Amino acid sequence: MRLLIVYSSIDGHTREICACIADIARAAGHEVELAEVESTTAEQLQACDRVVIGASIRYGRHRPAVKAFIDRHHAEIEARPNAFFSVNAVGRKPHKRQADTNPYVRKFLGQIGWKPQQVEIFGGKIEYPRYGFFDRNMIRLIMWITGGPTDPRSVTDFTDWAQVEAFARRIAAG
Question: Is the Cβ–Cβ distance between 88 and 13 less than 8 Å?
Fold first, then answer.
């Protein structure tokens, strides 16, 4: 199988999750290509057997380029087995890791015409030292309101890597 993993990553964590999925698929004997959403072409989609789209959230939204990509390539995506995953801090709570319980994913899926065959939500990563003044303080405020970590020196990875691996094995199994 030729797997195309298209991603949108603001700080690199979604890309890291994609690399983990790619490693597992390669270990299962598949050919894998990773591509940023802004630079993925119709030719890349047409050349793959399966497509996975992964996107992170910042301030409650997926980046506009993700929706634009899906709108532009809707037919190519639906023409093959496909999956979508979202990476967000709300996903740190196990009961918010389903498409119908995660408000950001539910809203996003309602805005696009594509209905992914598989949907997964992974907890994100907060790296306060890496952020600029505005992002650091806005994210701290959001975390304070929602009961998350607020120490501006902390790095917290909410990703359940066993969940990522299980998703990757399902993708690799076909």
Answer: no
**Bridge partners, 52 (sequence order):** 5, 83
Q: Domain coordinates of the chain in residue numbers?
A: 2-124+159-173, 125-158
pLDDT digits (tens, 9 = 90+) for 59-76: 889 999 999 999 999 999
Name which of 74, 15, 29 is nearest 173 in CA terms.
29
Report pLDDT digits (tens) over 1-53. 999 999 999 999 999 999 999 999 999 999 999 999 999 999 999 999 999 99
Q: Which residue has the tokens 């990875």?
A: 157
Terminal alpha carbon distance of the chain: 9
pTM assigned to the model? 0.94
Task: Report how far apart, in Å, the C-alpha atoms of 38 and of each of 54, 63, 84 are.
Answer: 13, 11, 16
Residue 118 carries which DSSP code? -
Q: What is the pLDDT of residues 95-104, one digit of tens each?
A: 999 999 999 9
Task: Give the other-Cβ count within 10 Å of 47's Cβ.
Answer: 12
Helix axes 161-173, 13-27, angle to 10 degrees: 50
Fold category of 2-124+159-173 in CATH:
Rossmann fold (3.40.50)
pLDDT at residue 60, rounded to an integer: 87
